[in-house]
Specification:
Length: about 550
Amino acid sequence: MTRFSEALIPTLRESPADAEATSHKLLVRAGMVRQLGAGLWTFLPAGWRVHRKVEAIIREEMDAIGGQEMLMPVLQPADLWTKTGRVGIEELFKLEDRKGSDLVLAMTHEEAITAHVASEVRSWRDLPKLLYQLQVKERDEPRPRAGILRTREFVMKDAYSFDRDEEGLDRSYEACIGAYDRIFDRCGLSWYRVASDVGMMGGQGADEYMAPCAAGEDEVAISAGYAANVDVAIGTPEPVELPEGRDAPLEVETPGLTTVEEVSGALGVPEGALIKAVPFTGDTGEVVMALVRGDDEVNPILLGNAAGLDLRPSTEGEISDRIGPPGFIGPVGTEVRVIKDSQVTGRGLVCGANAADRHLQGVEPGRDFACEEHDIRRVREGDSAPDGSPIRLEPAIEIGNIFKLGTRYSEALGATFLDEDGRVRPIVMGSYGIGPARIVAALAEQGADEAGLSWPASVAPWQVELVALGKGDDETTRIAADLYRELRDSGVEVLFDDREAGAGQKLTDAELIGCPLRIVVGRKGVEAGELEASWRASGDDFTIPLDQGTVRIGQLVAEMS
RNA sequence: CGGGGCGUGGCGCAGCCUGGUAGCGCACCUGCUUUGGGAGCAGGGGGUCGCUGGUUCAAAUCCAGUCGCCCCGACCA
């Protein structure tokens, strides 16, 4: 299999100075990855072994649901991207060839695959199809970060489904969910499938697969029976005790008090009794006033979806012109569109009076102002999920995503077919991505301890690390070398540390690299007729009789996978 | 794009403020000793101090510009 002395596994005693994330530090220290430039990473042999094992699991599960693997170019004519309207995306790398033709480096492959399917698929009989590839993607990221977590070039498994209609898409989508669930389970990850924002991909539905880890750049709202990206998560907060209602709003003086904290303090009401009015301006110039409880924040994504607009926070000038003095605005008497969070209810609420240094008490939605009602507040730790269980927020890294694309790409690129009635119809598409490198990083984060990495057996670079403590050609070294050959010949993936190095270095490196099972051949053990074995994950150790080494280790390896 | 930080042998760092022959630890090479948690002794190799320009008798050090990298935020199919 692999002799450490002959392999390129450059372990490091210290972390690189610019590393912050655990996975970044440990993957570099374990000699698995190296940086070539910002967001540009090389997988060294040990790291690539892990990556390839993840790929193999992906291939098996995609093939199992009828996926067909293929390979498309990364370098593509810009023309295709003009047709789908994606050529303007800032993250898209653009370049010219020597003839001046416009090219792009693909960030995903919807354009390419749809162009092929458009020219090859004619009839309803040709559908459905599920096609996938493992291919490099290129993205001009504004900020690559955290080692291999967010890079400018990375391998992605991208799959695309092509169906005759929505029902077919639903079936393809469900099949992919099944495959994805199995893939992440088999990789040994802790993961969640969460509802997500459909984003710029458009389409009718989207789920993300998230792996919780400290270095994650997303946040997930999780409870016993609920999981959603915080971007779209909806929870129910603790109710607020409101002051007495009134027959009509009462204007009170609140000189210079513009924050929720100041107003609630001055009036002696809980922050949740205030109505926080947050103005947004749409791409059309329309101003929308979002209302949430004083102790809540507006979730701009939920608000944007509710409003059906692309929104940005309004400027002070827009607020003054269209609503009232900033700091004192409210929904009563305003002429702009008002969208109220469903948690803003009851009598006795407090809001800005749209007059300087004035607030209104005893306000009641519906009676005192008209509005649309949606869930637009940002979820908070401790909220209740729909099933009543408490929500917690966890950082997580996105490891996969699936979209119901619909016909956006097929219409743009003329991917149509003739149905059974002879009508031309656009193919209904789905898109399904997985980032193997992110799985590697998430596993590194999830399994790490003070000593280093710890890989699940299914994706470990080697199943066993065999450490020979002796030096030169003493007896222990010969025994270790014999055991290595036997294990290798019996099909065990074994990393044999045969280096001329001190025991401390070899043992620490074994913990750093994180193979599931470590076997030590040393003088003490050999004198007792034993091999010393230990599990990386639990630290449990035990001995194996020397003469049963190959057989027992073979059994343990079979059991672990 | 806004803010902050860093570029000095392979890695981690000091030196810069106050200009004057480039240093430390680890790693590496040779020899001897050593071998159960990152060994010891002796000898040795390796750096145009990111780059360009300026100031100066003299620049790692001062000035200007530029490139690269990291972190926070914005952004992120």
